[in-house]
Write a structure and sequence with these properties.
The protein has four helices and two strands; from the N terminus they run ββαααα. It has about 100 residues and is α+β, with helices and mostly antiparallel strands. The mean pLDDT is about 85.
Length: about 100
């Protein structure tokens, strides 16, 4: 698996000298296809039959959420999935089943 690094760009702001910080991360179709392959492979498995990936959140989204006060490590899988759905980022949900984790 190839890791896709987050990029940080600095831009001049207005005439008052402010600085704009832009964080981006390119998510390729190959990466989305890779996530889909994992999703399809896991779909036929029962829980307890090996490791199950719940979500795959890009670093740029994770960092944005942390700045907004949402720590997915503390919030858990179900709340993280709900937030991905709310933001239209369903493609990063690997396992759509509810496992009751908080």
């Amino acid at each position: 698996m190839k890791f896709i690094e987050e990029q940080t760009h600095f831009h001049d702001g207005d005439e008052k000298g402010s600085l704009i910080i832009e964080n981006t991360q390119e998510i390729t179709q190959d990466h989305l296809d890779f996530l889909k392959d994992i999703r399809n492979e896991q779909a036929g498995r029962r829980y307890g039959e090996g490791y199950t990936v719940q979500v795959s959140v890009p670093k740029a989204i994770y960092n944005k959420w942390m700045r907004e006060g949402f720590d997915m490590q503390k919030e858990g899988a179900e709340r993280t999935k709900a937030r991905l759905r709310a933001e239209g980022l369903d493609c990063f949900i690997i396992d759509h089943r509810n496992i009751g984790l908080k």
